[in-house]
Amino acid sequence: MPQQWVLITGCSTGIGRALVDVCRNFGWGVIATARNLNSLTDLKDGDDLRKIRLDVTNTDSIQSAVSAVEDLPLRALVNNAGYGQMGPLEALRPDELRLQFETNVIGLQVVTNAFLPLIRRRGEGEGRIVHVASVLGRLSIPMAGAYNASKHAVVALAETLRLEIGKQIPVILVEPGAIQSEFRATLKHAWGDLPERVAGTAYQSAIEHYANRREDYAGKHGMGAEDCAVKIFNAMNAEHPPRRVVIGADSFWAQIAHRIIPAPIWEYVLRSMNGIW
Fold first, then answer.
1. What whole-number distance in Å separates Cα of residue 239 and Cα of residue 225?
2. 3-state secondary structure of 30
3. Which long-range contacts (CB under 8 A, 24 or more apart) does 135-139 make?
4. HSE (CB half, 13 Å, CA atoms) of 14?
């Protein structure tokens, strides 16, 4: 039985799924969580793995997960669960915006508060809390207003939490760029009837352009989920964890460019890149 365990939210695919294997390979026990337990059935069973159903938007589900792992020496929490609600702000419904924040922001903080008491048992400086944000938590792009806003909020929550508890439990903010995962497939599913809503408007071609371009870019230039997971684990396992982990050359250079390029030029480039004229 491992002496240190990490709970990871959103393990169905992508970074969360890759992080399960990376942590186990380095001798950590993993509590892999997902809204749908069936998505975790292919994970190899062992004394170093527990599979737990966890819906970050449901308080009862969160409390049930806490009760299910109280016996484990929990050292770290990785808040990875989330999705992207894309589309022009003008076309988004209030419930779509609310659900984006319920999952990416409010759920993240409720989960953190729920598991903090278990992590504190490790003693001062021993625990770890990881918030997976995005490069879009530092800058914004068109057609992703709800997602941009949610990740900006995650950045603010991580920085505030670090100020409040950072001397007891290090808080690590992760800011990935494009990752090769099923994120964009989930993105299209979250659209619902959005393409029909914007049919015949100036946004129609912009949505098609955005979806195709982002998927193509991630496939060609995005970092592999496994490489991303290794960087997260190294930060989490460090004796003195970094405050921020910028992952991917695109995330690094985009943040620098955003700071130094004059706003009118920056906005022109983003509009042209995303089919907004």
1. 24
2. strand
3. 135/175, 135/176, 135/177, 135/246, 135/248, 135/250, 135/251, 135/254, 135/255, 137/175, 138/175, 138/255, 138/258, 139/254, 139/255, 139/258
4. 22
Yes or no: say if 227 and 248 are a contact pair by the CB < 8 Å rule: no
Can you give the residue ranges of every domain in the chain?
Answer: 5-273
List, in order, residues 6 or more apart from 196 with CB less than 8 Å away.
none
Give the CATH number of domain 5-273: 3.40.50.720
Which pTM value belongs to this model?
0.92
DSSP line for 87-135: B-GGG--HHHHHHHHIIIIIHHHHHHHHHHHHHHTT-TTT-EEEEE--G
β 74-79/128-132 pair status: parallel
CA distance 194 to 239: 46
Residues annotated catalytic, as ranges: 147
State pLDDT tens for residues 176-196.
998 876 655 566 666 778 888
Cβ-contact 93, 114 below 8 angstroms: no
Q: Rounded CA gap, 19 and 13, in Å?
A: 10
At 188 the pLDDT is 64
